[in-house]
Design goal:
It is a single chain. This protein has 11 helices and 8 strands. The protein has 280 residues and is of the alpha/beta class. The strands form 2 sheets. Strands 2-1-3-4 form a 4-stranded parallel beta sheet, with helices on both faces. A 4-stranded parallel beta sheet has the order 6-5-7-8, with helices on both faces. The N and C termini lie far apart (65 Å). Bifunctional serine/threonine kinase and phosphorylase involved in the regulation of the phosphoenolpyruvate synthase (PEPS) by catalyzing its phosphorylation/dephosphorylation.
């Protein structure tokens, strides 16, 4: 089955895309052709889009699905009148929430992505800069300044996870790659032991690791299955010695790994506060 899906908004369309993707993921037997249509903020653009909907319906033999975040009722009505299955995402949430809060919504587009808190925006930018400057163990002397430190073998997902933590949570993230030198001495530097309370190890299936490394260095010993198996086996021995949480990136997304890290950090923080109260 082929269906065309439009993600439509009078602003960036990020919200429509994100929530729409989550809903579509539950229907993996359907082949969705996804079309992004941000800034549909005039009646002329809305009417032009309804024409594209008609063309998609003729091509697929079924009306397209539209995920929209349209706060302008006049423009939204034009889209609803097109040949489509129209889902207004805000409609399901804003009105009931306004009723519960007893406050009328502002109905301003782009609010969720606006810089409403400059201090938090600045914190995120600083965190991103920190993650980039402390990638791949470039500055291990900065580990004490990091909110979280990741370790793992090459291509296990350290860098993208650090950047995600910085961008979405404003956390200063650093990472340390376990290398041949570490394997030869059977351990990692003392600096990692010193930050165990915020250290997380990443593990990945050797077959999956081979595929990733093969894309980077095709046909190299670095990408061979044996090398991947050896690297993972030795890394697991080091993790056991470190005694830190081990997160598997084989089938889990960056978002899932990051949420586990955030939860663990919060639990450690709460545990520390309880311990401090007992001492007092």
């Amino acid at each position: 089955m082929n269906r065309t899906v439009f993600f439509v908004s009078e602003s960036t369309g990020i919200t429509a895309e994100t929530l729409g993707h989550s809903l579509l993921s539950q229907f993996d037997t359907v082949n969705f052709e996804q079309v992004y249509m941000p800034y549909i903020n005039t009646e002329l653009r809305a009417k032009a889009l309804t024409q594209r909907m008609e063309e998609a319906a003729d091509r697929d033999g079924a009306r397209p699905i539209v995920f929209a975040t349209m706060l302008n009722k006049e423009i939204g009505d034009i889209l609803k009148g097109g040949n489509c299955f129209y889902v207004e995402l805000f409609e399901f949430f804003v009105d009931p929430l306004a009723k519960e809060l007893g406050v009328a919504p502002s109905l301003k587009s782009g609010q969720s992505h606006a810089i409403t808190k400059p201090s938090y925006y600045t914190k995120r930018i600083e965190a991103i800069n920190f993650a980039m400057a402390n990638d791949d163990g470039i500055r291990p002397d900065n580990f004490h300044r990091a909110d979280v430190v990741l370790t793992g073998v090459s291509r296990s997902g350290k860098t993208p996870t650090c950047l995600y933590l910085a961008m979405h949570y404003g956390l200063r993230s650093a990472n340390y790659p376990i290398t041949e030198e570490d394997f030869e001495r059977g351990d990692v530097p003392q600096l990692l032991y010193d930050c165990k309370h915020k250290l997380f190890a990443l593990i990945i299936d050797p077959q999956r690791l081979q595929l990733i490394r093969e894309e980077r260095r095709p046909g190299s010993s670095y990408a061979s299955l044996k090398r991947c198996q050896d690297d993972i086996r030795q890394a697991q021995q080091i993790y056991k010695r470190l005694g830190v949480p081990v997160l598997n990136t084989t089938t889990q997304s960056i978002e899932e790994i990051s949420s586990q890290i955030i939860r663990s950090l919060k639990e450690n923080q709460e545990s520390g506060l309880v311990s401090a109260m007992k001492v007092q």
